[in-house]
């Protein structure tokens, strides 16, 4: 597939997208104002490196898709710029972190229909693919619970990181994974959310109004509910969830999924075949494979003019749910309604 890609941001998100796109599309350039990241990227690829989006688009005007892998609070401006240059734009999760930016993204999505792409790698995990293949047999989604946790959270929760600098819910990145995947089965969008939050480890979050542990409930338009929790308080290398970060228990009319917390605990009830995921030592390669599957879905949807597994509307719905979960936690658990699409 001869699609030309440009990536904005050369941190973890940019690198993960670069790896996932190998043998899928042609990444012609990446950009980041931080030149200290150059060597790390050059160890992965011979992709051209620019300092900003303007110079990248000027040097490579035939780029088809621009991937926005900047920090979560800095997605809007590069998205606007790339859209104005006529490119499609894939935005990493969560779409935005403020009411103002989400409203602006909604307006951009209306102005440029089909040009904003959004997806979620965990929606392409092997058990989720199996559920989708057997969705007719499983029947309607009834209820579920989901968790996001990880080990050694210092990397994303340490002092001076943008997650703590911007008075923004540090758990939203985790929430986005789980909420997006559940949208595939809920049959309707999220309409309201409630949450509570605590600071267990990173006490400096109190100064920013954030939490490193949250739990709550989502309600979908059809009345189904999902309970959830997210923990980013661990400081050691070992988490109770092993190497996996996302886990689910999803109940359907005719079956269920138990997904986690480790590779020996992936079970699909009432399915026609067993489903397994790689052991911990292969998890890095599996993570790249999920990115690859995600990008294949997005790029073939463009080629075949069909709907991808996820849409910008999904991204907007989930980003609002993440944002309002944070606001609900600050209100000690009040239910908050999401804005109408």
Rg over CA atoms: 19 Å
Give a count of the beta strands, DSSP E runs of length 2 or more: 14
- Helical residue percent band: 25-40%
Distance between the termini: 33 Å
Query: What about the largest sheet?
Result: 8 strands, mixed
Strand and helix layout:
Blueprint: E1 4-8, H1 12-21, E2 26-31, H2 38-42, E3 48-50, H3 53-59, E4 65-68, H4 76-84, E5 88-91, H5 99-111, E6 116-117, H6 126-133, H7 135-138, E7 141-149, H8 154-157, H9 162-165, H10 172-186, E8 190-198, E9 213-220, E10 225-231, E11 246-252, E12 255-259, E13 266-269, H11 283-304, H12 312-330, E14 336-337
Parallel strand pairs: 1-2, 1-4, 2-3, 4-5, 5-6, 7-10
Antiparallel strand pairs: 7-11, 8-9, 8-14, 9-10, 11-12, 12-13
Helix pairs in contact: 1-11, 5-12, 10-12
Walk me through this protein's architecture.
The protein is built from 12 helices and 14 strands. With about 350 residues, it is an alpha/beta fold. The chain has an 8-stranded mixed beta sheet, with helices on one face. Strands 3-2-1-4-5-6 form a 6-stranded parallel beta sheet, with helices on both faces. Helix 1 packs across helix 11 and helix 10 crosses helix 12. The mean pLDDT is about 90.
């Amino acid at each position: 597939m001869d699609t030309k890609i440009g990536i904005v941001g050369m941190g973890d998100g940019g690198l993960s997208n670069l790896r996932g796109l190998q043998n899928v599309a042609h990444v012609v350039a990446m950009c980041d104002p931080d030149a200290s990241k150059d060597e790390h990227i050059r160890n992965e690829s011979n992709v051209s490196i620019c300092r900003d989006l303007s110079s990248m688009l000027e040097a490579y005007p035939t780029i088809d898709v621009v991937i926005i892998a900047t920090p979560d609070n800095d997605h809007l401006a590069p998205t606007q710029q790339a859209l104005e240059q006529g490119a499609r734009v894939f935005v990493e999760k969560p779409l935005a972190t403020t009411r103002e930016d989400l409203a602006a993204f909604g307006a951009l999505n209306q102005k440029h229909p089909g040009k904003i792409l959004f997806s979620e790698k965990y929606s392409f995990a092997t058990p989720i693919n199996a559920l989708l293949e057997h969705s007719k047999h499983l029947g309607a989604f009834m209820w579920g619970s989901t968790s996001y946790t990880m080990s050694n959270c210092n990397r994303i929760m340490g002092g001076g990181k943008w997650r703590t600098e911007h008075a923004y819910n540090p758990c939203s990145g985790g929430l986005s994974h789980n909420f997006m995947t559940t949208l595939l089965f809920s049959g309707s969008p999220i309409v309201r959310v409630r949450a509570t939050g605590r600071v267990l480890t990173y006490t400096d979050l109190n100064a920013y109004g954030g939490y490193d542990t949250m739990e709550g409930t989502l309600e979908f338009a059809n009345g189904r509910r999902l309970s959830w929790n997210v923990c980013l308080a661990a400081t050691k290398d070992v988490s109770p969830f092993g190497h996996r970060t996302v886990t689910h228990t999803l109940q359907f009319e005719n079956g269920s999924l138990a997904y986690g917390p480790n590779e020996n605990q992936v079970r699909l009830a009432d399915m026609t075949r067993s489903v397994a995921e790689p052991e911990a030592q292969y998890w890095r390669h599996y993570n790249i494979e999920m990115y690859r599957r995600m990008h294949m879905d997005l790029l073939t949807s463009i080629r075949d003019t069909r709907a991808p597994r996820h849409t910008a509307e999904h991204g907007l719905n989930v980003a609002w749910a993440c944002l309002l979960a944070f606001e609900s936690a600050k209100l000690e658990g009040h239910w908050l309604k999401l804005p109408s699409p």
